[in-house]
Description:
Elements: H1 5-19, H2 22-28, H3 32-35, E1 37-40, E2 43-46, H4 54-66, H5 69-77, H6 92-95, H7 103-120, E3 134-138, H8 145-153, E4 164-168, H9 174-181, E5 188-193, H10 200-214, H11 220-224, E6 227-231, H12 234-240, E7 247-249, H13 266-293, H14 300-314, E8 319-324, H15 332-344, E9 362-365, H16 368-372, H17 376-381, E10 386-393, H18 401-423, E11 440-445, H19 450-471, H20 482-497, H21 505-520
Parallel strand pairs: 3-4, 3-5, 5-6, 6-7, 8-9, 8-10, 10-11
Antiparallel strand pairs: 1-2, 2-11
Helix pairs in contact: 1-4, 4-14, 7-13, 8-13, 8-15, 13-19, 14-19, 15-19
The structure holds 6-O-phosphono-beta-D-fructofuranose.
Amino acid sequence: xxxxxxxxxLENLSKQAKDRHLASLFGDxxxxxxxxxVKLPGLILDYSKQNLxxxxxxxxxxxxxxxxxxxxxxxxxxxxxxxxxxxxxxxHTFLRDLADPKAEVSEQWAKMEELVERVHTKQLRGYSGxxxxxxxxxxVGGSDLGPLMVTHALKGVRSPLAPELHFxxxxxxxxxxxxxxxxxxxxxxxIIASKSFxxxxxxxxxxxxxxxxxSFSPTQAxxxxxxxxxxxxxxxxxxxxxxxxxxxxxWEWVGGRFSLWSTIGLTIAxxxxxxxxxxFLQGAHEIDVHFRTTPFKDNVAVMLGLISVWNINxxxxxxxxxxxxxxxxxxxxxxxxxxxxxxxxxxxxxxxxMIDYRTCPILWGEVGPNAQxxxxxxxxxxxxxxxxxxxxxxEASGKSERHTFHHHLNIANCLAQSRALMVGKTDDDPNKxxxxxxxxxxxxxxKLDAKHLGMMIALYEHSVFVQxxxxxxNPFDQWGVELGKKIxxxxxxxxxxxxxxxxxxxxxxxxxxxxxxQNEN
Length: 521
Ligand SMILES: O=P(O)(O)OC[C@H]1O[C@](O)(CO)[C@@H](O)[C@@H]1O
């Protein structure tokens, strides 16, 4: 990035940006919103509350050209193996192109549709012949967070035939044990969702679930009626004993954190029906077309990505807060934590060299009105400068007077906070002084439904990709997660053998304290 001609220009421009107060940009230009927003059918990105002039923006657009963003976008959409460290394409966009599906994808959609149909029409029955009422998705990371976030968001518009959905991910087992207390084995179906089908978290929980069903089911065949596998690893699903018609496949060219568009989205299809799931894909596809064909300045995903680069690399902001003003998006921040930080939390370039500039933001978030009563204090008066994404819906979730009342209150709070962060307020009492100047985007969508949710997620995915191109990093691998897994296995073996030899003194000390407490009780 640093060798690109526009980098130096942006560095110089950023000195002026650091010297000006964000609010002054609004004072100088009463029409600032018109100049700094991008509109698409169904959504608006307002980035007028960024500390950015038209000249800064032009240089960012030049930086994108110099980084060959257009070529990289083509590589993404034409299936080049741009995940070079794993020798794979990043093909999540292929899954959303319903007009031109790959044959292997169509085959799995058909299989998934059949399973959805069998659950909805109560043909899929458990060991005792009773129909399935509850579905538990067992998975972690990309095999959990996307479907969890989407099905929570769309719960209010589910198919009347949808079963109750539950999600279990934590390997400590308590989440699953608590859930099982309230479920009946006869009517519960488990989805074992794992791209690799080797993740210990998921496999250990699946084993516990299986033992639970086995403790009620009189036969092995009856037990297996209660399990569906979703994976790229057909041999491992086979070895686990899953029935062939209960095995859904996807492919190595779908990254884990991009897999909610694949058969990993089974819970979404069970909740929304296959048609609803396809509306979700369609929303994402519309953004794919927009991303691939729209000039950068009018391209929402490109602008989102470039704004982040400006804030992170030139204005030195490290934090990004995700603030949806809608409780239906309770799990959005958790989902984006993986999408953004597992993708761009990298420190080597594509050619394997250490890089000497910041990459990924530290992202966190919460439903906006709740966050106001939690961490907004830091954003208004702390020492950290952070960027925020406010997410808002124009349509209320219902039509009653009370719905309208709450909706207006919600809109007012969202707009008030982004304004307060921007303008601040001077006061003689330093405790009541607000520096302001905190930058934000506002993403306004018409409504929250499957299609608009698909649009939003695809926008964030592509924004992550844009940033990775500017930073010259591979956003599609995740080698950083491997070391901890390896050490966990080594320590697990030590714990089982009650042996601490060779471990560092901190690990030894903690293990011995644990064993002491266990012996005393
Ligand atoms: O779907 P799997 O293979 O069980 O992996 C779950 C998650 O684990 C990770 O590999 C990280 O450990 C994620 O990238 C992935 O989404």
